[in-house]
Structures are given as C-alpha cells and as structure tokens.
Amino acid sequence: MFRMKNSIREQNSIIVLSEIINRPEISRAMISELTGLNKATVSEIVRRLIEDDYVIEIGPGKSTSSGGRRPILLTVNKKAGVSISFDVRYDRISYLITYLDGEKIDYTIEEKEMTKDNIVDSITSVVENFKSTLTDSPFGIIGITISIHGIVNENKIEFTPYFDLDEIDLVSILEQKCDLPIHIENEANLSALAEAAFDYEHEHIVSFSAHTGIGAGVILHGQLHRGSSGRSGEVGHTVLYPNGVNCPCGNQGCLEQYCSTKAVVRKFQRLKGDESLTFDDLVASYHEKDSSTLNMILQFAKDFGIGLMNVIGNYDPEVVYINSELLEEIPELISLLQHYLSMTIYKNVVLKQSLLGKKASLYGATVMNLQKFLHVSNVEFSLNMEKVLEVE
Ligand SMILES: [Zn+2]
C-alpha cells in the first residue's frame, strides 16, 4: 500500500514534470514553449501524468493575447504523497512531515541523547504512527531522508565525531523495518539543497552550518557538489591553529574546535569558571555587554571569518547562507563578517542569515525525497517562504 505506484523514468516525462513542479501553475502550451517539445507530445505526457495522479488540472487561466480559448492550467498534485524528514544530532532528533509541495503536516523536536541503540526505534515509531493515520493517499509516504551531523557517502554513515551512529548500517536496518525508500545525507549538504530550493536568483550557493560541528554544503551550477566521497565542504576540519586543540577527526586545531556552538559554550564556561553555564547564559552575557564575553565573541567572529573565507576561496559562491544558533542570537555578527569580506578579494560575495534556521536540513531532506521519487535533479518550492517560516 505504501509502495510508490509508478516511477517516472522516461526522459520527456521528467522534463515536463519538472516544469510543472517548479511553478505554481502552467499551461500545456507554455510547457511546449519552455521545453521545445511539440504540443501533441506534451498533451500525451500530461494525459499520462494526470492518469497516474502526479498532476491535476486547476481550471482555465487568462486568455491569450490573440484572444483564443483560455488554456487549462496544471499543477502538481500536492496531496498525492507525503515526505518524511529527520534531523539527527547527538543531543536532539527532529522531524518534518510534509505534502509534496513542502506544506507542513507535522514538525516536532525532541531533546534527547541519540545513539546507535535508540535511533532505529526513534525513527520507526514516528513512521508507524504516521502510517496508521494516512488513508487514501495515491503514493503514500514517498520516502524518508535523514540528515546526519557527520560524513555520509553513498547512503552509508562514515564518520560521526560526537556520537556512534557510524557503527551501524542505518539505511539497511530502516529499509527492512519500514519497507520504504530510505536516504541519508550530511546535514550541511541538505541545508544547501533547501536554501537553493527557495533561492530563485543564484546558481552558486554555499550553506555554512555551525551547530555541534561545522560544515558547508555547496551548490555549484544549481547542483549539490559532494566531491568524490562526500567530504566536500568539510570546512569544520580545516586547520585554524596548527598544534591546537585535538579533534576527533585525527587532526589538531580544527575550525570546529573553536567555532562550533558547543566549542564556544565550552570556552565561555572556562572563561567564567563555571561548567553549569549554558548557551542562553552566553547570549545574555553578550547582550549585557560583559567585556570579557564581548572580547571572546570578537575572537570567535575573527576565527569564523577565516573559516568562511576558506570556503569562499575554494568554491567561489555568489551567496553564503549562514546557519548558526549563535549568529541568530547575535545578528550584528553577519554585518561584521560582511565587513571582513569587504576588505578582501571576496567583497562581492553576499552573506545572508539563513531564514530556515534549524529547519533547513529538514526542508533539504524534503527536497531530496522529491528528487529521488520524481527522478528530477532540481526542485524549487513554489511554497510561500512566509508559510514555511510560520512552521513551529
Ligand atoms: Zn577535525
């Protein structure tokens, strides 16, 4: 029942479907114009897409300038299937369930320590509960994509520095338990896919994530750039201070030992000689203009800026989306970082605070589910960004 009914493999069908997905509405004539396929071919493909529940007709559009018949507009059948995304950190699991257009059905965050011993049950219980409520959906659950804070290559977790997920074959276990397509991908890569899906202007995008670790997701020519083994954008493990702090990656002085949220909170605790202090205490101390905290944050900004410029130098993006809890709380740091860039050859690169925040990798996972299910390489959400930001 939850298997996909059809998969689209024929090249022209994919081209036509991509045009329909990436717009709120479109006519057959417009598809023909945009794709170069003749009208009879487009009509035949659309007939099959409607028959297979991928596409629906939404009524007549405006009449053409020549005054002809008003064309029937088409749109993707948003409610025909459901995507499930998970984001797994060492201290938290969250999930997002959406229709095919990204519209939210459920979004939940659970703070708990995640290990190889509880991850399978944590995921399958959400999926089973949701399955029991899902009726009359032509495609059912189209797929499950899991965002991992670590290195992922060819659907295998290769390295998770702060927990032990790399010790199990998560995809094989979940495929057996859930009987659904399961995909896993690095958190920063998925965040980049999400930023690209909402950014209609740029083709070269970096998403720079700083949470428990630091990583960059890279979109070049509109496509996710993974490198030969999924290690592209592993900026967290570029060396900031030779012979510096030991890192679980095997190196010393890595950027993420100085600029991850975890590292900054640890530094704040040492500065104040109190291990019970939290991230919220750090932010409060900054806003109270405590001078030692201000100095510490200034040093953080300098270190962060070096990491940022290293990524920009490697990939030459037009825009960098920054996704960091700390910069969300102290947004003036973005202007400071932009000022650092303005003094270098990277002055044309635009820095933006990610509006998607902690939901970025979840929306990226939704994009990946759609890409795999529909066999399309590009998904632009026609969903209103404001609607996404309301999701709590
Ligand atoms: Zn490292």
TrEMBL record:
Instruction: For this UniProt record, give its keywords in alphabetical order, as a comma-separated list.
Output: Carbohydrate metabolism, Xylose metabolism
Q: Which domain of life is it from?
A: Bacteria
Q: Which Gene3D superfamilies match?
A: 3.30.420.40, Winged helix-like DNA-binding domain superfamily/Winged helix DNA-binding domain
* Cited SUPFAM superfamilies: Actin-like ATPase domain, Winged helix' DNA-binding domain
- The answer to whether UniProt assigns keyword Phosphoprotein to this entry is no
Determine if Transferase is one of this entry's keywords.
no
Please describe what this protein does: Transcriptional repressor of xylose-utilizing enzymes.
Q: Which family does it belong to?
A: Belongs to the ROK (NagC/XylR) family.
Q: What is this protein called?
A: ROK family transcriptional regulator
